Amino acid sequence: MSRVLVAMSGGVDSSVAAALLVEEGHDVIGVTMKTFCYTGTGDHGKTCCGLDGIADARRVAVGLGIPHYVFDVEADFTRDVIDDFVAEYARGRTPNPCVRCNSFTKFQDLLRRGRALGCDAIASGHYVRMDRSGPEPALLRGLDRRKDQSYFLWGLPRDMLPLLHFPLGSLTKAEVRERARALSLATAEKPESQEICFVPTGDYRDLLRTRLGSTHPALEPGPVVDRTGSILGEHPGYAGFTVGQRKGFGGGFSEPMFVLEIQPDTRTVVVGTREELFSDALEVREVSWLTDPPPEGTTVRVQLRYRAADVPAVVTGCGETLDLRLQEEVAAVTPGQSAVVFADERVLGGGRIMDARRNAPRSVLQS
Amino acid sequence: MSSLYFDHAATTPLRDEVRAAMEPCLHGNFGNPSSIHRWGREAAAALDGARARVAEALGATPGEIFFVRGGTESDNLAVLGRTRRLVVDGHPPRVVVSSVEHKAVLAAADAALHGSDGVPATLRVGVDGSVDHDALADVLARGPCVVSVMWVNNETGMILPVPEIAARVSGSGSTFHTDAVQAVGKIPVRVDQVPVDLLTVTGHKIYGPRGTGVLFVRTGVEVAPLVHGGGQERGLRPGTEDVAGAVGMAEALQLAVLEQEAERTRLAALRDGLESRLGTLVPGLRVNAGDAPRAPHISSLGIPDVDGGILLGALDLEGVGASGGSACDSGAAKASHVLTALYGQADPLAALRLSLGRATTEADVDRAAQVVARVVERIRSGGVDR
Question: Shortest Cα distance from B382 to chain A (angstroms)?
Answer without folding.
Answer: 6
